[in-house]
Specification:
By secondary structure, the protein is an alpha/beta fold. It is built from nine helices and seven strands, in the order αβαβαβαβαβααββαα. It has a single domain (2-209), classed as Aldolase class I (TIM Barrel, Alpha-Beta Barrel). It is globular and about 45 Å long.
């Protein structure tokens, strides 16, 4: 993990995103602390809105945290965070993080109610869940949902990232969404790296996202 992050950084990645899950089935505590120590790049910590993980984040002080839903049986995060129905709990975490100097992003579906709630609870960013866009690519309907959600978010004062299921084929169209800042991409880069190496896979993706 640490060496992979070093390779990504050297190859031109703009940031490193890691998910410290409650069950620790992937990333371990020692990994995130080591990454925080060695990286010059911004570190984005994906995390559940869970007390023990919140305490780690406050001490770790990554550049940003991204609150995501988390279920034990899932392979990877499968949907957006339910912000509209959990405003008080998420607002409390946003304040805790902001008081510690950490920006907060909320991983949400491109749904007007979730975007509105994200602005109301004090987050600085949303990360739009691009899973439906990726699954139905090149669906105009799913692209329009992202476009409209990004505009709504910016109008509400939020900064906008996106991620989930993005790959070397579908990422370029997102350049048409002028409000997007960061794209969090992992699986497709690692899959490509099996054939051409991690450094080259990162360089190829960087070229696509910075056109």
């Amino acid at each position: 993990m640490i060496e992979a992050a070093r390779v990504c950084e050297a190859a031109g990645a703009h940031g490193i995103t890691v998910h410290l899950r409650e069950d620790r089935r992937h990333m371990q505590d020692r990994d995130v602390w080591k990454l925080r120590e060695i990286l010059a790049l911004p570190l984005n910590l994906e995390m559940a809105n869970a007390p023990k993980i919140i305490e780690i984040a406050v001490k770790l002080k990554p550049a940003t945290v991204c609150l995501v839903p988390e279920r034990r049986q899932e392979v990877t995060t499968e949907g957006g965070l339910e912000v509209a129905g959990n405003r008080l709990a998420i607002a409390s975490t946003c304040k805790r993080m902001n008081d510690a100097g950490i920006a907060v992003s909320l991983f949400v579906a491109p749904d007007p109610a979730q975007v509105e709630a994200s602005a109301a609870v004090g987050a600085q960013y949303i990360e739009l869940h691009t899973g439906a866009y990726a699954e139905h690519f090149p669906s105009d309907k799913e692209f329009e949902r992202l476009l409209n959600a990004a505009k709504q978010a910016r109008d509400a004062g939020l900064r906008v990232n996106a991620g989930h299921g993005l790959n070397y084929d579908n990422v370029s169209r997102l350049h048409q969404i002028s409000h997007l800042e960061d794209l969090n991409i992992g699986h497709s880069i690692i899959s490509r790296a099996v054939f051409i190496g991690l450094s080259q896979a990162v360089k190829e993706m960087v070229r696509l996202v910075t056109k």
